[in-house]
Amino acid sequence: xxxxxxxxxxxxxxxxxxxxxxxxxxxxxxxxxxxxxxxxxxxxxxxxxxxxxxxxxxxxxxxxxxx
Length: 67
Known about the structure:
- By secondary structure, the protein is mainly β.
- Helices cover 10% and strands 27% of the residues.
- It has a domain at 1-44.
- Strands 1-2-3-4 form a four-stranded antiparallel sheet.
- A hairpin with a 5-residue loop joins strand 3 and strand 4.
- The chain starts with 8 loop residues before the first strand and ends in a 12-residue tail after the last helix.
């Protein structure tokens, strides 16, 4: 059985919505879904297509997809 390593990247200047800590947010793909996670308080949120439509008021230009 082979385990695939998940690439997690820190988001510079990002503030955790739950605990307010700066530079504690990690961004990664989990099962093809963009996910953020706080290293300090274990806050976790997944960005689904429905969340994107609700959170954007203006026209979206594109999504960042790290390789």
